[in-house]
Design a protein that fits this description.
Length: 283
């Protein structure tokens, strides 16, 4: 490891202290550390992290993200085209994406320098928004693509297809399409299943459905999911990882499929998804 990038979420409490400890750790071992930002919020601006940090691309061997799941999600989307390992250090609340907690930091940073880590390629999602024959926008997500009603809106209807086959007309608050990584996020809160993040599949979960027989549906990673909005004048929005939004109109179609890009997350052998799951879910 000749050079490591550090992306802090400066709005998180104690981030500055954690950053100083990381700086001290690598300085004492003569490893160059590039730190994004200077105390300002880089995560609420419209500037792409990949654009802002483009000068890092040929220099860094690994990127450390200090924050919660939201910080890691944004970094994963913006750096997906780099094919670079990302290590998450959690300074947020209960989350599933950060590999280590602050109190474990020194030990695992030593593992990084010794090369005692693995990288897990996490499946990502792509979504296109179509209005008639026109493609309005494209999005990349690590966790989920969600079509849902606005904050002051009535129920919405989302006609959902797998490939060209009609699946269900969901009436309620909306529909979540989650990756395996995203199965422990919004989809879990809506009653969806927990999926090992190493798998390649998509989870379709209705949000507060108005019928009792609507349940989550799991499809293979090679299939495409289409969601057509029937809003009846209700406000409907598309959200990407809970961070990026797009206002939808009646008859708009959102098409979700597996991306060719992967998020490359650092893992350590003495950690496991199931151990993390036990720790997070026991409260």
């Amino acid at each position: 490891m000749n050079c490591i990038g550090l992306i802090p979420n400066w709005q998180k409490e104690n981030t500055a202290l954690v950053v100083e400890k990381i700086k001290d750790f690598f300085t004492r071992r003569r490893v160059q550390l590039l730190v994004a930002g200077s105390g300002q919020d880089r995560f609420s601006t419209g500037v792409s992290l990949a654009e802002e940090l483009d000068s890092w691309r040929e220099r860094v061997n690994l990127v450390i993200v200090v924050g919660g799941d939201g910080t890691i999600l944004k970094a994963a989307r913006d750096l997906a085209h780099w094919d670079i390992p990302i290590l998450g250090i959690n300074v947020g609340q209960k989350g599933f994406l950060a590999e280590i907690e602050v109190e474990q930091m020194d030990r695992y940073l030593q593992y990084i320098l010794a090369g005692r880590f693995e990288c897990q390629n996490r499946m990502m999602l792509e979504a296109t928004v179509q209005r008639g024959p026109k493609i309005l926008d494209r999005y990349l997500a690590l966790n989920d693509i969600v079509v849902s009603r606005g904050p002051f809106s009535r129920i919405v209807q989302v006609d959902t297809f797998v490939n060209d086959d009609f699946l269900e007309s969901y009436s309620g608050d909306g529909v979540i399409v989650a990756s395996p990584t995203g199965s422990t996020g919004y989809s879990l809160s809506a009653g969806g299943p927990i999926v090992n993040p190493s798998m390649e599949l998509l989870v379709i979960t209705p949000i507060c459905p108005h019928t009792l027989n609507n349940r989550s549906v799991i499809v293979t990673g090679s299939e495409r999911i289409s969601m057509r909005v029937s809003s009846r004048l209700a406000q409907v929005v598309l959200t990407v990882d809970g961070q990026v939004g797009f206002a939808l109109e009646d008859d708009d179609e959102v098409i979700v499929y597996r991306s060719e890009r992967k998020a490359k997350l650092v893992q350590f052998k003495d950690n496991s998804f199931y151990r993390l799951l036990h720790q997070k879910l026991k409260g």
